[in-house]
Amino acid sequence: MSYFHLGQDQHCRSDLVGEHKYGDAGQLVIAFLFFAVWVLDTYFLNYTTFLNQIIPNSIRLPLAILFFSVSFLLAFVGMSMVFGKIRKKPTVIRESVFRVVRHPIYLGEMLLYLGFIVLSMSISAFFVLGIAFIFLNHIAKYEEKQCLEYFGEEYQRYMRQVPRWIPRFGRKRKET
């Protein structure tokens, strides 16, 4: 989820810039598709859950809990930072989870799906996660373009310092 909106809609906050007009609807469609495929494959059809017999619950459950926990942290903290306070004007948010990745809310969404996949080992649901990634990556690029147009060099510097998806733990960030 981007943290800016240019105010194309009348119900938008003026301190937010760059959100794609189909972002929310697309996420809802993908969430419905993901959970429909996951539930059908996991509990009814069992076409692609054969890895359950190979990978024990003692591995899958802790891993799923880890994904759910990180997902919740990224989404909750990211959403509260973006929507928890109104700013006088749009600004590049660089603290907390936004210091780690540029799109923590979208990453949290994908980790939530991954947690469910690990629980059931549904390969069908994994393919829907691929679709979700393609969609969210497209939305993220669109939002970054909007932010670049609005913030210019400040956002370009942020893009150089903070990765879009995969955190750079242990490596020093460039302060250019």
Oligomer: single chain
User: What portion of the residues fall into strands of 2 or more residues?
Assistant: under 5%
Helix content: 55-70%
Rg over C-alpha atoms, rounded to the nearest angstrom: 18 Å
SSE topology string: HHHHH
> Which spans of ≥5 residues are poorly predicted at pLDDT below 50?
1-13
Cα(first) to Cα(last) distance is: 25 Å
Number of DSSP E strands? 0
Integer count of domains: 1
Number of helices: 5
Morphology call = elongated
- Main sheet properties: none
Secondary-structure content class: mainly alpha
Structure report:
The protein is mostly helical and 176 residues long. The chain has one domain. The protein has five helices and no strands. Helix 4 (123-151) packs antiparallel against helix 5. The longest helix is centred in the C-terminal third of the chain and has 29 residues, at 123-151. It starts with 22 loop residues before the first helix and ends in a 15-residue tail after the last helix. The model is unreliable at 1-13 (pLDDT under 50).
Summarize this entry quickly:
With 176 residues, the protein is mainly alpha-helical.
Helix and strand topology:
Layout: H1 23-45, H2 57-83, H3 104-120, H4 123-151, H5 153-161
Helix pairs in contact: 1-4, 2-3, 3-4, 4-5
What structural keywords apply?
single chain, 176 residues, mainly alpha, 5 helices, 60% helix, elongated, disordered N terminus
